[in-house]
Amino acid sequence: MDARTLYIGDVHGCADELSLMLEKFAFVRGKDTVYQTGDMINKGPDSVGALRIIQENQIRCVLGNHEMGLLHCIHEPQEKRTLKQRHRIEALENIDWVLSVISQFPLWIDTPHALLVHAGLEPGKKNLSEMNPHILVSIRTWDGAGADLKSKENPPWFECISWEKPVVFGHWAENGLVNLPDFKGLDTGCVYGKALSAWCPEEDRFYQVPARKVYCPI
Ligand SMILES: [Mn+2]
User: Fold this and answer.
1) Ligand 1 centroid to 210 CA: how many Å?
2) What gap in Å lies between CA 157 and CA 86, rounded to an integer?
3) Cα(2) to centroid of ligand 1, in Å?
4) Which CATH topology does 5-117+167-210 take?
5) Where are the domains of the chain?
6) CA-to-CA dists, residue 144 to 46, 124, 161, 172, 178, angstroms
7) pLDDT tens, position by position, for the chain (218 residues)?
Protein backbone atom coordinates (compact mmCIF):
# COMPACT_ATOMS: atom_id res chain seq x y z
CA MET A 1 0.00 0.00 0.00
CA ASP A 2 1.19 3.54 -0.76
CA ALA A 3 2.00 5.94 2.03
CA ARG A 4 -1.12 7.62 3.40
CA THR A 5 -2.00 10.61 5.55
CA LEU A 6 -4.39 10.79 8.50
CA TYR A 7 -5.75 13.84 10.32
CA ILE A 8 -7.10 12.97 13.77
CA GLY A 9 -9.54 15.18 15.73
CA ASP A 10 -9.48 16.40 19.35
CA VAL A 11 -8.18 13.71 21.73
CA HIS A 12 -8.47 15.33 25.21
CA GLY A 13 -6.55 12.56 26.94
CA CYS A 14 -8.46 9.68 25.30
CA ALA A 15 -5.29 7.63 24.86
CA ASP A 16 -7.04 4.28 24.34
CA GLU A 17 -9.18 5.59 21.51
CA LEU A 18 -6.11 7.24 19.94
CA SER A 19 -4.28 3.89 19.97
CA LEU A 20 -7.30 2.16 18.49
CA MET A 21 -7.50 4.80 15.76
CA LEU A 22 -3.92 4.07 14.65
CA GLU A 23 -4.78 0.36 14.59
CA LYS A 24 -7.99 0.88 12.64
CA PHE A 25 -6.12 2.98 10.05
CA ALA A 26 -3.41 0.29 9.90
CA PHE A 27 -0.83 3.02 10.51
CA VAL A 28 2.68 2.15 9.36
CA ARG A 29 5.28 4.01 11.39
CA GLY A 30 7.96 5.65 9.26
CA LYS A 31 5.74 5.46 6.18
CA ASP A 32 2.36 7.07 6.87
CA THR A 33 2.03 10.65 8.13
CA VAL A 34 -0.37 11.47 10.95
CA TYR A 35 -1.49 14.90 12.11
CA GLN A 36 -3.78 15.92 14.96
CA THR A 37 -6.02 18.98 15.43
CA GLY A 38 -4.80 20.00 18.93
CA ASP A 39 -6.47 19.78 22.35
CA MET A 40 -4.53 16.66 23.15
CA ILE A 41 -4.79 17.36 26.88
CA ASN A 42 -7.34 18.00 29.68
CA LYS A 43 -10.84 16.71 30.46
CA GLY A 44 -10.08 13.06 29.64
CA PRO A 45 -8.43 10.14 31.45
CA ASP A 46 -4.81 10.11 30.26
CA SER A 47 -3.32 13.26 28.73
CA VAL A 48 0.26 12.15 29.40
CA GLY A 49 -0.37 8.73 27.82
CA ALA A 50 -1.92 10.40 24.78
CA LEU A 51 1.13 12.66 24.39
CA ARG A 52 3.41 9.61 24.65
CA ILE A 53 1.57 8.02 21.73
CA ILE A 54 2.06 11.26 19.78
CA GLN A 55 5.80 11.19 20.42
CA GLU A 56 6.29 7.48 19.77
CA ASN A 57 4.57 7.73 16.41
CA GLN A 58 5.88 11.15 15.39
CA ILE A 59 2.36 12.51 15.07
CA ARG A 60 2.34 16.23 14.37
CA CYS A 61 -0.13 18.32 16.40
CA VAL A 62 -1.19 21.92 16.21
CA LEU A 63 -1.77 24.03 19.32
CA GLY A 64 -5.28 23.85 20.78
CA ASN A 65 -6.89 26.31 23.17
CA HIS A 66 -6.20 23.84 26.00
CA GLU A 67 -2.46 23.75 25.28
CA MET A 68 -2.38 27.52 24.80
CA GLY A 69 -4.25 28.00 28.08
CA LEU A 70 -1.84 25.78 29.99
CA LEU A 71 1.25 27.46 28.50
CA HIS A 72 -0.24 30.80 29.48
CA CYS A 73 -1.34 29.98 33.03
CA ILE A 74 1.84 28.11 33.95
CA HIS A 75 3.67 31.45 33.82
CA GLU A 76 1.12 33.10 36.11
CA PRO A 77 1.77 33.20 39.86
CA GLN A 78 0.01 30.29 41.63
CA GLU A 79 -2.50 32.57 43.35
CA LYS A 80 -3.65 33.96 40.00
CA ARG A 81 -4.66 30.53 38.69
CA THR A 82 -8.31 29.54 38.86
CA LEU A 83 -9.36 26.42 40.76
CA LYS A 84 -10.03 24.66 37.45
CA GLN A 85 -6.54 25.56 36.18
CA ARG A 86 -4.97 24.29 39.41
CA HIS A 87 -6.85 21.00 39.19
CA ARG A 88 -5.85 20.51 35.58
CA ILE A 89 -2.19 21.16 36.33
CA GLU A 90 -2.31 18.73 39.28
CA ALA A 91 -3.84 16.07 37.03
CA LEU A 92 -0.85 16.24 34.68
CA GLU A 93 1.86 14.14 36.23
CA ASN A 94 5.23 14.99 34.70
CA ILE A 95 4.20 18.58 34.01
CA ASP A 96 7.64 19.70 32.81
CA TRP A 97 7.67 17.01 30.15
CA VAL A 98 4.10 17.93 29.09
CA LEU A 99 5.12 21.58 28.75
CA SER A 100 8.20 20.69 26.72
CA VAL A 101 6.06 18.64 24.30
CA ILE A 102 3.16 21.06 23.84
CA SER A 103 5.36 24.13 23.56
CA GLN A 104 6.56 22.65 20.26
CA PHE A 105 3.06 22.64 18.75
CA PRO A 106 2.66 25.33 16.07
CA LEU A 107 -0.55 27.36 15.54
CA TRP A 108 -1.01 25.82 12.10
CA ILE A 109 0.65 23.30 9.78
CA ASP A 110 0.50 23.77 6.03
CA THR A 111 0.46 20.09 5.00
CA PRO A 112 0.55 18.81 1.39
CA HIS A 113 -3.19 17.95 1.35
CA ALA A 114 -4.68 20.52 3.71
CA LEU A 115 -4.12 23.39 6.08
CA LEU A 116 -4.35 22.17 9.68
CA VAL A 117 -5.49 24.48 12.49
CA HIS A 118 -7.21 23.85 15.84
CA ALA A 119 -10.43 25.88 15.62
CA GLY A 120 -10.51 27.80 12.34
CA LEU A 121 -9.33 30.79 10.36
CA GLU A 122 -10.03 34.47 10.86
CA PRO A 123 -12.34 35.68 8.07
CA GLY A 124 -11.22 38.81 6.27
CA LYS A 125 -7.51 37.99 6.55
CA LYS A 126 -5.49 36.60 3.66
CA ASN A 127 -2.34 35.55 5.49
CA LEU A 128 -2.13 33.21 8.44
CA SER A 129 0.54 35.34 10.08
CA GLU A 130 -1.95 38.25 10.23
CA MET A 131 -4.58 36.19 12.02
CA ASN A 132 -5.14 36.55 15.75
CA PRO A 133 -3.75 33.43 17.53
CA HIS A 134 -6.65 33.50 19.99
CA ILE A 135 -9.09 33.30 17.07
CA LEU A 136 -7.14 30.44 15.41
CA VAL A 137 -7.57 28.30 18.55
CA SER A 138 -11.07 29.43 19.62
CA ILE A 139 -13.34 30.41 16.71
CA ARG A 140 -16.61 28.66 16.01
CA THR A 141 -18.80 31.37 14.52
CA TRP A 142 -18.03 34.76 13.01
CA ASP A 143 -19.70 38.02 14.08
CA GLY A 144 -17.83 40.18 11.57
CA ALA A 145 -15.43 41.54 14.17
CA GLY A 146 -14.08 38.67 16.28
CA ALA A 147 -15.62 39.88 19.54
CA ASP A 148 -17.94 36.87 19.93
CA LEU A 149 -16.50 33.62 18.59
CA LYS A 150 -19.31 31.22 19.49
CA SER A 151 -22.77 32.77 19.34
CA LYS A 152 -25.12 30.54 17.39
CA GLU A 153 -26.77 33.71 16.04
CA ASN A 154 -23.77 34.03 13.72
CA PRO A 155 -22.66 31.78 10.84
CA PRO A 156 -19.92 29.18 11.20
CA TRP A 157 -16.49 30.69 10.41
CA PHE A 158 -16.06 28.34 7.45
CA GLU A 159 -19.01 29.95 5.67
CA CYS A 160 -17.17 33.28 5.86
CA ILE A 161 -13.81 32.51 4.25
CA SER A 162 -12.37 30.57 1.32
CA TRP A 163 -8.91 29.05 1.21
CA GLU A 164 -6.69 27.68 -1.55
CA LYS A 165 -6.67 24.17 -0.09
CA PRO A 166 -8.94 22.20 2.25
CA VAL A 167 -8.87 23.28 5.90
CA VAL A 168 -8.86 20.58 8.58
CA PHE A 169 -9.90 21.65 12.08
CA GLY A 170 -11.36 20.50 15.41
CA HIS A 171 -12.66 22.36 18.49
CA TRP A 172 -16.39 22.21 17.78
CA ALA A 173 -17.68 18.93 19.22
CA GLU A 174 -21.25 20.15 19.45
CA ASN A 175 -21.33 20.80 15.71
CA GLY A 176 -20.01 17.30 15.01
CA LEU A 177 -18.37 16.05 11.85
CA VAL A 178 -18.04 18.63 9.06
CA ASN A 179 -17.61 17.13 5.61
CA LEU A 180 -17.60 19.91 3.04
CA PRO A 181 -15.32 19.77 -0.03
CA ASP A 182 -13.03 22.46 1.42
CA PHE A 183 -13.55 22.05 5.17
CA LYS A 184 -13.18 18.96 7.33
CA GLY A 185 -14.22 19.35 10.98
CA LEU A 186 -13.05 16.40 13.04
CA ASP A 187 -14.03 17.05 16.67
CA THR A 188 -16.83 14.58 17.36
CA GLY A 189 -16.64 14.69 21.16
CA CYS A 190 -14.72 11.53 22.08
CA VAL A 191 -14.19 12.78 25.63
CA TYR A 192 -17.96 13.36 25.93
CA GLY A 193 -18.62 9.71 25.13
CA LYS A 194 -19.17 10.08 21.39
CA ALA A 195 -16.34 9.19 18.99
CA LEU A 196 -12.81 10.00 17.87
CA SER A 197 -12.82 10.90 14.17
CA ALA A 198 -10.14 11.15 11.51
CA TRP A 199 -9.88 11.83 7.78
CA CYS A 200 -7.59 10.29 5.18
CA PRO A 201 -7.24 12.56 2.12
CA GLU A 202 -5.82 9.91 -0.23
CA GLU A 203 -8.89 7.73 0.31
CA ASP A 204 -11.22 10.66 1.07
CA ARG A 205 -12.50 8.49 3.87
CA PHE A 206 -13.35 9.06 7.51
CA TYR A 207 -12.29 6.70 10.29
CA GLN A 208 -14.11 6.61 13.62
CA VAL A 209 -13.48 4.96 16.97
CA PRO A 210 -16.39 5.06 19.45
CA ALA A 211 -15.54 6.38 22.91
CA ARG A 212 -15.21 3.61 25.51
CA LYS A 213 -17.23 5.74 27.94
CA VAL A 214 -18.35 9.22 28.87
CA TYR A 215 -15.18 10.66 30.41
CA CYS A 216 -16.53 14.15 30.94
CA PRO A 217 -20.07 15.57 31.10
CA ILE A 218 -20.89 17.96 28.26
MN1 LIG B 1 -10.64 23.30 21.59
Assistant:
1) 19
2) 32
3) 32
4) Purple Acid Phosphatase; chain A, domain 2 (3.60.21)
5) 5-117+167-210
6) 38, 9, 11, 19, 22
7) 899 999 999 999 999 999 999 999 999 999 999 999 999 999 999 999 999 999 999 999 999 999 999 999 998 888 889 888 988 998 898 999 999 999 999 999 999 999 999 999 999 999 999 999 999 999 999 999 999 999 999 999 999 999 999 999 999 999 999 999 999 999 999 999 999 999 999 999 999 999 999 999 98
